Amino acid sequence: MKTIYGHFDDKQFENYKVRLHKELFWLLLYKDPKTKDEFNNIDFEKYFINLMKRIDGLNTLLSYPVEIISIMSTLQAALNETREENFDYQSYRKLVLDAHSLVDKINDRS
User: Fold this and answer.
1) Helix (H, G, I), strand (E, B) or coil at 4
2) Which of 42, 53, 68, 81 is most exposed by smallest CB count within 10 Å?
3) Which helix (H) or strand (E) holds 76?
4) Phi and psi (nearest 5°) for 52?
5) Could you give the CA distance from residue 102 to residue 57 in angstroms, rounded to a whole number?
């Protein structure tokens, strides 16, 4: 994978995508009605925003692949849902899972 600073080999980039998948999965656990109480000590907003900033960094590093727009906008919609007075976990879950699936669409443009 070609970046603004050089090159990542394919395995390295695929491993990063696996890590990103896991970090997105945590977003579900933090808000799932069945598991959220286990994570009261986590600053959810801070985690979410830091994850978005890291994805934005990836966006820059990879020279702005179009797939990042879909990931970021979908995650922003999910974050917006968490801020709603009538938070709908199922809508939130779908948005996070949609973003999760979009990660695999980021590909090598080298």
Assistant:
1) coil
2) 53
3) helix 66-82
4) -65, -40
5) 17
Q: What percent of the chain has pLDDT over 90?
A: 81
Distance CA 76, CA 78 (A): 5
CA distance 20 to 56: 13
6 DSSP β-pair partners: 3
Residue 8: helix, strand or coil by DSSP? coil
Q: Residue 54 pLDDT more than 50?
A: yes
| Burial class, 75, CB count within 10 angstroms (exposed 0-12 / middle 13-18 / buried 19+) | buried
Average pLDDT of span 26-39: 97
Could you tell me the pTM of the whole model?
A: 0.90
**Two tokens, residue 6:** 């050089």
Q: Which residue has 């830091």 as its token pair?
A: 50
**Average pLDDT score, the chain:** 93
Neighbours of 56 (CB within 10 A): 12
Residue whose structure tokens are 């692949």: 65
CA-based nearest residue to 92, from 76, 69, 108, 71: 76
